[in-house]
Amino acid sequence: MSVLFPRLLPAQAQVLYSSHRLLPVESLKEQAALHYDSAVYVATGGDRVRERDLDDLRKAVVTAARQHGFPGAATPKNRNDFDREVAELLHRTMGVAPAEAASRDIWVFLALVVLPDVAFWRFDGKTDERFLAKDLTRHVFGRLWWRAHLVHDPASAEPYAALYILGEGAFDQIYARRRALGGSPQLVRAILHVWNGIDTTGLNESELLKDFLKRLLRLGAFMSFETLQDEQLRAELQRAAHDSVSAFAEERHAKHALTAHD
């Protein structure tokens, strides 16, 4: 049974966001709370999260943030390392089912009520999509839970190891194609497994991944990935990855030959 988290509805969320965005990170610590009068719970489906569990969650996330520079300025490496650690932390400890995690309002509550200081430290650009969860794949915390959920392999000795294969930008490429590719944990894990085995030396990894995913989209138009056994799925993905690498290698070779000729 899923744990139910408080939900902060859009009108009140907008009020809090508008207020918080004007404050420095140090002041937002004073705004953090475990309860908010206007928050609501869904009527059925699980047990309400206890305030002491919310407190433990806040302490754990703050501790992780401090290990990566909070409340000071964060480097890109700080932010990536924080994301990976907190993705596992949220997915492992919150106890929410995917149906509950699909609610934008629980992530808004977490970002604007429980952890406003960490949320605005992680994304200091003040864009509302990171806090109001208009798109869960862009939310400061919601995207991390879903990233961990998609790569989580309960049969593995290191069930969250795949979090360390791709960075933020690469995950975004998969999320951007989530209707066709990013909605299946089995497919995402297979993509990461195959990608991790590719030799990208000398190639543009971002463009190569984009090409690989485009090939999978074309393949998915006439193949149901979900019906394939793991070995069959990986074989199809490896074939597509090999085609991408070969195409990029040939293009690089042609450019070098042209340069040498000039």
Your description of this structure?
The protein is mostly helical and 262 residues long. Helices cover 61% and strands 2% of the residues. It is built from 14 helices and two strands; from the N terminus they run βααβαααααααααααα. It has helices at residues 10-20, 25-28, 51-67, 76-93, 98-101, 104-114, 116-122, 129-132, 142-151, 168-176, 178-182, 185-196, 205-220, 230-261, and strands at 2-4, 46-48. A two-stranded parallel ribbon has the order 1-2. Helix 6 (104-114) packs across helix 7 (116-122). It is globular, with a radius of gyration of 21 Å. The model has no long low-confidence stretch (mean pLDDT 88).
Content of β-strand: under 5%
**Which shape, going by the Cα principal axes?**
globular
Instruction: Look at the helices and sheets and give the structural class.
Output: mainly alpha
Helix count from the secondary structure assignment? 14
Instruction: State Rg.
Output: 21 Å
Question: How do the helices and strands follow one another from N- to C-terminus?
Answer: EHHEHHHHHHHHHHHH
Largest sheet: 2 strands, parallel
Count every beta strand, where a strand is a DSSP E run of 2 or more residues: 2
Share in helix: 55-70%
Q: Could you give the order of strands across the largest sheet?
A: 1-2
Unreliable spans: none
Mean pLDDT: 88
Intertermini distance: 68 Å
